[in-house]
Amino acid sequence: MDIQKLRIVLREDLNHTKLEKYTVKAFCEKANVDRNQFYYFYSSMSKLLIDCFEFEIKRYLLKDKDLKFRQRFIKLLIDFKANTQYYHNMLFLIRKKRDIYQPLLKVIDQCLANYCQIDKPYVLVTIKSCSSMLGSSITDWIEHDCPGSVKDFYERVYASIELIEKQNGGRDMLE
């Protein structure tokens, strides 16, 4: 089973209108995948949605190592804004919100820790706190259909990122 093909089909299906329901059966028909094969890889539609959401986050935050965190984060926000319906549907269709929140925090933690190249325990605590704030802000922004501009949203969360910089000896993550 081609996971990339599944992601493409899911993105096409979820990117057009608000959905109240999206079943494994409907998805498998669109993706031309046997339901048994689907369930071999995913225990539920929520698991596929979480996998796809996590993939999108990693695609922006963990790739392009030459870019500063700010640039990667803004690219991610631009994708959220450009594909608001897709991400909104993903969050709506996932049964338990905490199931999407934990992978999001994990990826943000990983990206910030890698970028800062830190070994100070107090900075790690700050990163966890920043990740939590960023994760809840991102999910809230998506759930409300990404109101305002990417720049406005970024400016609201900038203070958390700035705090990590200060505790990391002033290492510039943003410019």
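The above is record 1. Record 2 follows with the same two-line structure.
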Amino acid sequence: MTITRVLRAYPVFAASHTFILCIVDRPDGRELVKMENSLRNCRICGKVYLHLNGPQICTGCRDDLDEIYFRARDEIRNTPPGERLDSLKLSERLDVDHVYIRILAEEGLFEQEETSSEYTTSRRDLADQFASELRKIEQRGAPEDSNPGRMFIGERRERKNI
């Protein structure tokens, strides 16, 4: 079910449960959809909102979270290599509630930062190995009768004869 956007939302409070009737825009037209279990409380501010996907936070807190993510990413990148930084220290440095940092960590946004240094190290190792192999080939020297254009001429002749 692809929903382009929610045009109107009407909460319905029944005795047993709560659901929302939404008029949604789809690629093939508008439709009335019943969305159950979509009213949630924001983890940060506690406000009731319409939950579609992602972490359980309202749109206002999501905007704040996006801004905090960029600040936190810059702070982590500017941290000296030997210094360890946990969520409480990071939230103190950024002067934000530690819940924001915890949600960012739960979403896996900081794990990529740790593996990126390992990734660049392995790329450097591979580049060094490649460079040493090239040096070995250059030291051996190329045969005098080598011609790059005639590399597979023997194989072509064999295919024609078959």
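The chain has a mean pLDDT of 76.
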